[in-house]
Write a structure and sequence with these properties.
Blueprint: H1 2-27, H2 42-45, H3 48-52, H4 56-79, H5 83-108, H6 111-120
Length: about 120
């Protein structure tokens, strides 16, 4: 279960980074030829190595960071049309997937979870 959550969190974070870059540079940029909004993927790079290394603390704070991308996805999904709207929906889904996986991973890997499981056994 923990391995599946790890893989889900890693893949959704990496996919979100690539989606942000592709969206603002090629697929549906705000300005023709790309825009500086592509830099919005930079904060996602901060927790990437911690997430890939399975550091619980990175999962904890990255789950709060990802809510900004979830919010942007919701706003742009309701205000844009066409390709931009589809990309915003994809951003929302990826952010929600990462959030759920990272919260579950952080919860299942907490030290007290292992102790309570061991003490519950007869």
């Amino acid at each position: 279960m923990i391995r599946a959550l790890y893989l889900t969190a890693c893949s959704s974070l990496i996919a979100l980074i690539f989606l942000c870059l592709a969206w603002e540079l090629r697929l549906a940029p705000v300005l023709p030829g790309g825009s500086w909004l592509a830099l919005k993927c930079l904060p996602l790079l901060a927790p990437l190595f911690g997430i890939l290394n399975g550091r619980r603390y990175s999962y904890q704070w990255a789950s709060m960071l990802i809510l900004l991308y979830f919010t942007e996805g919701i706003v742009r999904a309701t205000t844009e049309t066409g390709t931009g709207q589809a990309l915003a929906i994809a951003e929302t889904i990826l952010a929600l997937t990462f959030f759920c996986a990272s919260v579950a991973y952080a919860r299942l890997t907490r030290p007290s979870a292992h102790q309570s499981d061991a003490s519950a056994r007869p």
